[in-house]
## 1
Amino acid sequence: MKVHPEDFNLIKDNLEIETVIGEYLDLRPTGITKTALCPFHTEKTPSFKVWPSTQTFKCMGCGEQGDVINFVTKKENFKTPSEAAKFLADKFDIPIRIMGEEEVQNYEEQEVILANEFALKFFKEKFFGTYEPRKYMVDRGYTKTLVSKWEIGYAPMDYTLDYSRETLEKADLISAKGYPKFRDRIIFPIRDITGRLVGFGGRRLSKNSKYPKYVNTAETPAYKKREVLYGLSQNLKLIKKERDNDDKKYAMIVEGYTDVNLLEKADIRFAIASCGTSFTDEQAKAISRHVDYCFLFMDTDRAGEEAKSKIIKKLWQFDADVKPIKAEHGQDPASLAIKHGPDLYSFVETQCPMQLVYDGAEGNREKKTEECLKAIASTPNHLRRDDLLRLLEKCSKYSFKNLLGRLNKYTTRLVFK
């Protein structure tokens, strides 16, 4: 149950705070205020004050403060202000609107998005007004055009956003204690496929390793990280437009925000990335709706190779082909894009996706083969299954006939975690 937020003001406008609080406390006039013993902590000298002119209260002893709804929420031990608002509306016969579950969800999504837009404006102003983050991004290879397109911002170490605290907390911009989530960080706005600003990624600016290198917005009413791909909103038009020589559409999956941004230096404007999470079914489904295949350009460390194998299996499951890219050892896509620019393709080569899945599986030849067969069985495209079996024949050294017979065991679609 949630009272429509606009009706909170209706309730407060129709009530006198001193009348409501006077039913709980013995209020005594003291100049422009009314005073009583605080109900929220033990005291002998009254320090609880009510200001009728502003319809607010504050205890000078314990610091508890707010309006009439805040007071009733605390005094009646209600879990939410909405419960207190409903209690007051019923008691004083004030007509209010109760929002349904779907209406609440839509309202809270919009609340978070508006808070994010407010925060982004602040972050962008701080970026252009602060030397260190601008120098850092220039040193990383960013141009004014890239900074502008990707709406890069900066969150200082200490700051306060002049916005509803409740909404900022709901948007994961501050903690429950009111501390900023992003501090001394380069800010990467995250937009969903429709362009709504649903969250942020923050990259540590200082070299102090006691802080995490990256901090990302947690789940909020607007941000479902399993469903969002960074860069898809900005690059979708080009992804839909791009075609190879066989008239097939494609995209490129990379690991991080800077990879997506800086690959534009190599004229690659069709890159996307998962937002600080493992590649999910929802993300695979989202991109497979728009392309025939994906290039897979990950870091060349062990974690990158493991990620490739998992993503390949996910994409097969949603009927998208994969072309993994092998780069110089220790080089990430962003560094290679800066180093080689448009000539990047001359310094990388594609890998066999089945070989990556086979090599990434645990166990002996038999177990590796079984793992690959499960992956092949997950794809709904029978023609692709045949192509993948041919690749597995080369990797496993089992005959096509042998593999085809074993594949028939897997008749259900499997989901890979």
## 2
Amino acid sequence: MNYEELTNIIKLAPEENEQWDFKEKWHESNGELLRDIINFTNTPSHNDAYIIFGISDQDGSVIGIDENDPNRKNKQQLQDYLRNIPFAQNYYPKTNVETLEVDEKEIDILTIYNTDDVPLFLAQDVARVDNNNKQKKKGKPLGRGLIYSRIGDSNTPVDQSTTDEQMKRLWQKRFRLDVSIYDRFKYILKDYNNWTYVPRLDNVTTYYIYTKDPDFVIEEAFDETLENRDAFVAYSLSQFKLRVGWNVVRLKYRGTILYDNLYNYFDNATFGAVMPDDRFIEIQSKDYISGAYFYYLKDDFPFLITMLIASLRGGLNNGRAQFTFEMFKKDALFIENESQRLALENETQNYLKGNVSEVIPDAGEIESIKSKMKLDIGMKDRPKYDDSKVANMILDNKLTHLMIELYSSDGHNNEL
């Protein structure tokens, strides 16, 4: 959580809900802290939840944390505590603890990260006792098998399970039945172990089937209409062989096409990828108006499909395919989210105002790429690839490389 997010929530204090709770100080009983964490874990929401310490839950005023509070915990201490709790699942809630300063006072934020692994419950009772006097009980123990859940600003009573309706919503969340079919597809595309690869039998279509629910299918098909597409693209210029192949990939649910896109093969089909997205940036040059860069958002279909198919076909373990993949990563951005993309695009535009020469291709680069293309170019391709066409491909490639460098220098990682 950053400062702006924190202060926006504090403005709403003392109002609480199933996403955040205010405490003047840390819990005097670890058992009571555990109760809050379980309740916040078990919510139908797909958002992280927060316990914010140092804020009055009566009037919302900023009190700050006593630095000598014996009950105060850091991230590691909290995770060590949760790791030793007898949860019924082979899982414990993932949390974080960070400190920010508001009105010159320290505020601790305990983040309970969102998870679909709900409902979470205990395999054994856990006592609620005073941290500094283990003989002093702080109410009834947390009961094994009981399912606690935050509803609005209230926790489930310690000796009860949540309502039937809330239980239903938790199970729907677990199996992604509470989200759109597109979000469900994105979710199961990450479940590599439960997909089956059915090799191409008719030399036309390859199928990938989700074994937990065969209604979810990916088709990868040859389409003869694609034969006239470009044999060379800007995002293949780092490859040993520059020529690319083209297929079509479709996501289907119960036979209905939910998504389709083009699919490229690189370096004699040793590695494949859904065609990356592209955007244009204005180039302040007398010879060029704009340049394109190529990217994947890590939670969008092109990236998710690419990684799943590569995993199913052994492309991430095969030596030659791995090399081709490494070359491919030099020519495409892998970005966490859309806000990062927009910020990077703005940074790049500002950088190019004084450094546009870094992305302008020179005659030597053009001749070098043309020489590599000659190894794979067909007769019908030759008219397409004059110096101007090749120069624009190199410009796009160099622009993407520059953005990868800027992205990495900002502390981000273009790795997967």
## 3
Amino acid sequence: MKTLILNNYKLLSLLTILTFFTIIVGTAIANFFLLLSIITFLLIDNKNYIYFYKLDNFSKILALFFIYILITSFFAENEFYSLKKAFFYLKFFFFFIALKICIEKHVVFFDIFLKFILPIFLIVLLDGLFQSVFQFNLIGMINNTSRISGFFGDEWILGSFVFHVAPVALLSIFFYKNITNKIKNIFLVILISLSIIVIYISGERTIFFISIIYFFTITAIIFANKKLFILFFAIFVITIFALNPSGKNYRIFKSFNFNYPSKDGTVPTVFSTFTVYKDLYSTAFKMFLDKKLIGHGVQSFRIKCADKKFFTNRFGCSTHPHNYYFQVLAENGIIGFLIFLSIILFLTKDFVFIFLKWLKNKKDTKNLALMIILLNIIISFTPIIPTGNIYSSISGIFIFFKLALYTGLKLKKFN
């Protein structure tokens, strides 16, 4: 019986990982595997349902946020729309619980990632490099712009995908026991270097700059007091100069200004991307001021931003305000914002305590692993940076996959 349950958890591990990776194919396929993961979790053991109410402290805060957005959706002006969005968003909480328990109770997750998924991740990285050189990728998708999208085609999320997957890939190598530490370190350096380069050529400015902070920090931690860190940094600097950003004309180092067609069709007006974000944030803040307590409802920004009393200049309306904090303020009010902020502060507090514990014992692999994943999560929630839609399927999968990974590892008892 125990063998059967273990094999079922291996299947669950594979399904949750495929949820992460099938974003490459499309969100519909990714959502299919997400739902399949939840169903599999419930079928593995008829007692697994207890984990949805037997929660640790962090999971309780998450549950509170989900319950809050669901209840307040009943009071939204577009009640059915917001309620539908909030209801379907609940799937990420169930997915979070399923993956968290899978990692906490069983050890096969990273083995499966290493054997089956890490090669795919490496192909994604190499495909991006290939497309940057030849203007078409390994399956013939043509790209003539200064940005690289690889297998994602007209979805410009290659850099984001690499940034969010990289810590999982690093941990799969980190926990692999059948190679020496020297070989393991070499693999880690190669993977980090490839990730940085691909994020750079993807042209995603925000992801590139936060990835530099992330990879530099975790490399300093992983290779603390080791010459290999100096080697890595030298390789990184040489690589960036070898790419010659001014010659390659990659978007990362191009002007933040863009031409916008004038109303009369004559000379286009030059605007800064900062103007776009300022207008979006202003619209979101006006929405917050209109309904300070509970906000306008999940995914309401795309509907309400066109309202004259909220609209701010020509760039003030979009599908979302491109910042998690402004989106939660506008759509969920001050109460939702405080719950959301408490989640971030909880994680930040955890990182500080884990880091201090690691300083006392740098051979503690659990704390090192927790920092690798936790720092990636915290940096993703930097308040001042542009972000995606927090209630989209892609953002939901990225966020709750990593949160489950961190929480499961934190609760897991290591030998």
## 4
Amino acid sequence: MGKGGHRRRRNEWGRINEKKLSGGRSQFYARYIGPDNREHTAGRGFDTRQDAQFWLLGQKRLIDLDTWTPPAEQRAGKKAASLTVAGLIEKHLEQLNIKASTRDTYTRVLTNRILEPAKAPGAPGLPPKAVTGLAATPVVNVTRARAREWWFGVCDYYGVQEFNHKAYVLLRAAFNRAVEDELLEVNPIFVAEVAKTKPAKLEKHTLTEAEVRAILQHMSGRYWLVAALALWCGIRIGEALALEAKHVKETPAGVEVHICQNVQRIRNGRAGLMLMTTPKTEAGNRRILVPGFIGTPLLEAARAAKKRPPVVVPSDNGPARLYPLCVTSSGRIPYDGEVRKMVGRAAASAGIEGRANPHGGRTFANNRLMAAGLTPAAVGRYLGQKDKATILNNYHTATDAEVERAVAALEPTPGI
């Protein structure tokens, strides 16, 4: 008998070690020298010697057929074969180091297009099997043809939507992880037509100063301040909703607000759940001055907030007690959708055509700051945007007045 209670017995091929356990039971461990001249095991014990022998015979047969791979790779292959697309997505999301709000968005997109495809409004029936069946498909069985089948099934049923593209990008990212984990050799999620089937982007309506003024005149008192900060100063709506009394300060230069946190909605049933997080980006943490017509009501709101009971909301570090500047009649922080709805109603009442929403204020503020001669770096610091390309390309739009000045600049110089 060997050390540790092992009883060894030579087999025709390979070796089986018996280990005595408590209660008179035994475990049998098989091992052999493979074609690579290395010792290999099953990675586990067997309840009977016969089971261990059968395993050795199976390994010997693989060698004889020249289809052998190390047992560790065989086990990984079996594991991969049992992993479905739904399981891969779940694993991928768990390993992502992202904010809860971002994870919520990813989950919603993947659920509606892959995990549990929802019935499209007005559609005569449910989504096709090409769409609903992908989640249960083993990862190793997904081919480019299957990926194309899913993609075109999604587009045919839901129409060409940006939501479809988001699902495709996330699905491809999940399969990239499968390649990194050596479950697959190549990523099968590749559909060349994806780039050609992007929905046409809606032409954005750039708000003018007159339009912003008109919207604010039609806003109710409760939401006026948040709308003014978003539409006029370009503060993100989540940042504006997260402002507390302690973030407002009167300085010799004017009223300053410290933007250092963000409110986002995490879907929890139908109502949603407010979550306090850090600003959207690192550049989002900033101190900025606001115009005088906003500064005065801002100070009044800060004084009023200190007198109200705190609002308790979930945060990254547990429950947080906040003294927000804006609350609903029931004392909670408004949802972003509620503010957007109020801005839309105010715009309609003001007779403004086109889609008006709080995020449009970032373009409005960007244009005014650029027209005032501020550098992209200074504009980015005020708006909390580090990417200069976004400032110059996404947020900035040339106004009619700027184009008229361009024509004047092209006139010949007198005397030359």
